[in-house]
Amino acid sequence: MNMRYRRLGTSGLQVSELSLGSWLTFGKQIDDATAEALMKVAYDNGINFFDNAEIYSRGESKRVMGRILRKMEWPRDTWILSSKVFFGAGGKLPTQVGLHRKHVVEACHAALARLQVEYLDLFFCHRPDPETPIAETVWTMHQLIMQGKVMYWGTSEWSSEEIAKAHAIAEKHHLIAPVVEQPQYNMFHREKVEKELAPLYSTIGLGTTIWSPLASGVLSGKHTLEGDASSRMRMAGLDWLRERELTEARVKKVKEVKEVADSLDLSLPVFALAWCLKNPNVSTVILGASRTAQLEENLKAVDAQDVITPDVMTRIDAMLAR
Ligand code: NDP
């Protein structure tokens, strides 16, 4: 497998087609040695983007990733690192969450300290904040970029109107606009990426770093309705996730999709990830993994794109629409 790279929207930054995230895994589900092994497999296979956020394990995910990056001593110009701001790192006071200038700046400083880096390559607004004018956030992100603490900024799960508004404000005041949105995208969750954001790809050149490409593992095909015992679906406090992702209708649909994957000699997770990559508006598919064998398998998605023909895509469309 040779990793391939795509431009992050119309920015000049080239991100690997597959990237590695740390939600629920780093500092929580897996030990630090497994996190290190995952990052090493990723990096050795050409993955250049590691995704993180202030809320992941309440800051612990970043500490773990920071220690690994320091230990590995990979040159700083060979990897792209993100963090996100909005939910806070545990504290829920109004000063500790949201997208107002105080929290965005403090979250950036906390991210730099936990990750042990001088700058973030990508800094995402993890959700829209109805309590803060978008202009305040745009100015703050611009200032962080001017200070050299952030390279590019983006949004996650913002509406197309909110993203367009941020752009209009940036344009009016000659500020740096967001270049990327981080939306959920997988076979079960298509609307936002394929319809809602569609006008923004050509007009403002939006890139996308898509999350939960396997619907939290449901599209690996390993789950019964109760959830595989060793998986996140059985982790304490994640009943909401199991109820959202692991429905009877989905388990049934997964079996149908697997038949198509089988006919192409692809495993189901590899097929489901390659299906995401077939969308040219996806800049990178952020993988999650709790063990290295999963990641090694998922890396095959890069080559698997080539065997998924337009006919196969049409068959899947029909299957998912039923
Ligand atoms: P996926 O939907 O791909 O789920 C990953 C999980 O699926 C793994 O941790 C593992 O879970 C299981 N899995 C993966 N590969 C295989 C395989 N080959 N065979 C069997 N099981 C497999 O992605 P995530 O939901 O983890 O999201 C990816 C990243 O996206 C996150 O780490 C985070 O960085 C980002 N994200 C961003 C969000 C946002 O709001 N911006 C929200 C959510 C995620 P298990 O241990 O259960 O087996």
Ligands, ions, cofactors:
NADPH dihydro-nicotinamide-adenine-dinucleotide phosphate
Question: Strand portion, in percent?
Answer: 5-15%
Q: Radius of gyration in whole Å, from Cα?
A: 19 Å
- Shape descriptor reads globular
What order do the SSEs take from the amino end to the carboxyl end, as H and E? EEEHHEHEHEHEHEHHEHHHEHHH
Mean pLDDT reading: 97
**Count of helices?**
14
Query: Are there runs of 5+ residues with pLDDT below 50, and where?
Result: none
**Biggest sheet overview:** 8 strands, parallel, barrel
Overall structural class, as computed from helix and strand content, comes to alpha/beta
What is the architecture at the second tier of CATH? Alpha-Beta Barrel
> How many structural domains?
1
Total beta-strand segments: 10
CATH topology: TIM Barrel
Task: Report on the architecture of this protein.
This protein has 322 residues and is α/β, with parallel strands linked by helices. It is 44% helix and 13% strand. It is built from 14 helices and 10 strands. The chain has helices spanning 25-29, 32-44, 60-72, 101-115, 134-146, 160-173, 191-196, 198-203, 239-245, 248-263, 268-277, 292-298, 301-304, 310-321, and strands at residues 5-7, 14-16, 18-21, 49-51, 80-85, 120-125, 150-155, 180-181, 207-210, 284-287. It has an 8-stranded parallel β-barrel with strand order 3-4-5-6-7-8-9-10, surrounded by 4 helices. A two-stranded antiparallel ribbon has the order 1-2. The radius of gyration is 19 Å and the shape is globular. Residues 21-23, 25, 51, 156-157, 182, 211-217, 220, 222, 231-233, 269, 286-290, 294, 297-298 line the site of NADPH dihydro-nicotinamide-adenine-dinucleotide phosphate (NDP).
